[in-house]
Amino acid sequence: MSILSKPILNICTKLEHLLPAQPCVLCGGMSHHGLWCGACDAALPYLDAAHCPVCALPTPQGGICGHCLKKPPLFTRTLAVFGYRFPLDRLIQAMKYQEQLALAQLFSEKLILRISPARLPDYVIPMPLHPDKLKRRGFNQALLIAARLSRSLERPLLAQACQRLRDTPSQSSLSWEERNKNVRGAFRCDVDLSGKHVALVDDVLTTGASLNALADAVQKRGAAEISAWVVARTLPHS
């Protein structure tokens, strides 16, 4: 560390402690770092190990995994911030089921830090909810995350470009084998995307069935490149 940087770090630390503290959403202690404290942030399962660039599963030296070589998904790359493990899973559940919507903004900020300015998409598209599920939940967490990404990256948000045609059972309630069948043909895209690079945004990637089905819909409308941006990736043995 440069000697010149030490006074700057000291000033930043002092400024942080001048900000109003709030209870950490994970441990309940007082946090000067935002919704969760510095100690809990250090405990989060950041996806920093080498992983497949297509599906984000761990691989030696970051090579493409065997499954993606044998049967590649329709999206060409995946950007994920965390592994879907404790305590990150509690934060995702709090956002979706306890209406802790401020977490969506923080998740988008974490994603922005990992997005390369050299590979920005033409459009940002959130994973759509069926109107009946949207009515029951009251919000679409993927849209909240995507809207912040769109503003920060200055890329158009296509919030209504894709529709979910069936109110399918939750993927989390199904076996891995049943998930592909559950969402097959479940989406429609109503916008011409010919030659465009689109980023599909969701909270969690598990089998990739939902994102692959949505990628199929946008590909049929001409999308030439499809990226998947997710907050968390479910990892083996999770």
CATH architecture: 3-Layer(aba) Sandwich
Large-scale geometry:
globular
> Strand count, sense and closure of the main sheet?
4 strands, parallel
Strand order of the main beta sheet, please? 3-8-7-4
Order of H and E elements: HEEHHEHHEHHEHEEHE
- For the termini, the CA-CA separation is 36 Å
Describe the structure in your own words.
The structure is a single chain. This protein is of the alpha/beta class. Helix content is 36%, strand content 16%. The protein has one domain: Rossmann fold (3-Layer(aba) Sandwich), CATH 3.40.50. A four-stranded parallel β-sheet has the order 3-8-7-4, sandwiched between helices. The protein has a two-stranded antiparallel ribbon with strand order 1-2. It is globular and about 50 Å long. The two termini are 36 Å apart.
